[in-house]
Design brief:
The chain is of the alpha+beta class and 101 residues long. 22% of the residues lie in helices and 25% in strands. The protein has a two-stranded antiparallel sheet with strand order 1-2. The relative contact order is 0.11.
Length: 101
């Protein structure tokens, strides 16, 4: 059973919270520091997607082809290039790297 969301998809609320935390995967914490008229040090934090919560519901649709999940791996490297794969993810040049023997 899923909890009923308090807000509809796409709703945005702004709250001033002393010690914000990400409680739901749809939560985001934005931290700003204002210096005079300039806003600096902006930080955006999100939650981890609870993938296991949706496996039973979505996997049959993936397997029958009615849902086509997006591409996960955007770069492929051989075993000898694993370090380059990690560097590419760290430098945000690749989302996920597939390592092939």
């Amino acid at each position: 059973m899923r909890a009923t969301p308090m807000h509809a998809a796409g709703d945005v609320r702004v709250e001033d919270v002393a010690a914000p935390k990400v409680h739901q995967p749809t939560d985001a914490v934005v931290r700003t520091v204002k210096a005079g008229d300039v806003v600096r040090n902006i930080t955006l934090t999100g939650g981890v997607a609870p993938a296991r919560a949706y496996i039973d519901e979505l996997m049959p649709h993936v397997l029958d082809g009615s849902i086509r999940p997006g591409r996960v791996f955007d770069r492929t490297v051989g075993l000898e290039d694993v370090a380059d794969g990690y560097r590419a993810m760290n430098d945000r040049e690749a989302l996920e790297v597939l390592v092939r023997p």
